Amino acid sequence: MFTFHTPAITDSIQPFYIRSTSTPKPEDITLATFVPQDELSELAALVERYPGPISAVLHIDQPSDLPGTPSPIKRLRAMWASNPKVREQVDIHLITTPATHRQTAIQQQANLHRNLARFFARSDYVLLMDSDGSLPMTNVARSFKEHPQWIEKLRAGNVFVLPGFNVSTTTTSTSQDDMTVADVGLAPALSVANLPADKESLLVYIREGQVSLSEKTWKKTIRNVDFNAWAGQTRLSAIQNYDPYFSPSVVMRRDKMLWCPERFGDNHAACMFELYLSGADFWVLPNDFTVNAATRPENVVSDREQMINTRLYQKFHEESCLKHARAFYAAGEWDSDRARHCRISCQKGMFSFAYLFLVS
C-alpha cells in the first residue's frame, strides 16, 4: 500500500480513531468501507442493515478554527454517543487531508480507503463494499455459517461476489408542460425502509421496475453474471469469462490477498482484476446481494479525467498480465490450475503482445 501517496497523506492516518465496544471473532466477516465526510448518515444505515463488525475509513479536510465551520468530527461523536449500534459495531479510521490537498484528494483516493478499511479490520474475512450508497440487504455472515464449505473456499483465497442492484428513480413532477430536462426532479422509487430484504422480494421489485440492475455487476459488456440464471440459482456458480471492468462488492480474506492498486484512485475494477489474475476463483452467491438506495448523486468525472483513467487502465491490464505471468513462470507454475486465469487473459485481446513477448 501507499506506493502512490506522499507522506503528507499517509502521515495523517489515525487507525482506530474510534474503536467499537465489541471485539470481532476471527471467523466474523467485517464490512470494510469508506464513508464520505458529508455522508456520515450512511453509517447509521449500514448498522441497521449489517449486524456484524464494520471497519470504516473517514477522510476529512483539515479542521478549521473559523466559527460556523462544519465539523464532521463533532457530528461523528454525536452519532457515536446517540446510536448504540454504531458504538458496538463500528471502528473508525481517520485520515485528515492537509490544506495543500483538500477535497479533490478525498474524491480520488477510494482505493487507498478500501485498502485501509480492509487492513485494519479485526476479523479474518471482509466484505469489501463501495462507498456509493450501496447497502447489504441480507445477512452475509449467516449464509457462510450455513455453508461451511464456503469458508474453506475463502481460506483458499477465493472471492465471493454479491450481485448489485439499484433503486430506480422516478420524476417528482406531475406536469410536463413547458418543462426542460433540467427542471425534472428525480426521486428513488423505494424508500430505504422498503428496500428488499430477501431475493424473493428483490425479484418482485425488479419485475415491477422499482429496482434495476447495477452496471457494476450487470453492464451489457460484462458477461460475468447472467441475471436470468442467477434469478433461479440456489447454489454457488463460478464466473467463467471474466471481464476486467467487473467491480462488484465481494467477500474475501483480509490477509494474503493482493491490495487495490492505488494509482487509479477510484477504480474498484482494478482491485478485482488483480485478484483474478493472481489465481482467485470468483463465486457468485445465490441469495445475497446489495442495493444502492439512490439517496445521493454519483461522483462526476470530467471527460479529460475519464480519458486519462481509461488509457492508464489499459496499460495496467498489460502490465498486470505480464507481471503475474512472469511470477508464475518463475515459480514453475505457469501450467498449474492456479495460473489458468492468467493464461487465458494473456492470450486474448490487448494482452496478446505481452503474452507473445513472454513466451518467445
UniProtKB/TrEMBL annotation:
One GO CC annotation: membrane
Signal peptide stretch: none
Membrane-traversing stretches: none
Principal subcellular localisation of the protein: membrane
Gene Ontology terms: biological process: protein O-linked glycosylation via mannose
Source superkingdom: Eukaryota
GO molecular function (one): glucuronosyltransferase activity
Record's keyword terms, sorted: Glycoprotein, Membrane, Signal-anchor, Transferase, Transmembrane, Transmembrane helix
Annotated compartments: Membrane
InterPro entries documented for this protein: Xyl/GlcA_transferase
UniProt-listed Pfam families: Glyco_transf_49 (PF13896)
Topology of this chain in the membrane: Single-pass type II membrane protein
Protein name in UniProt: Glycosyltransferase family 49 protein
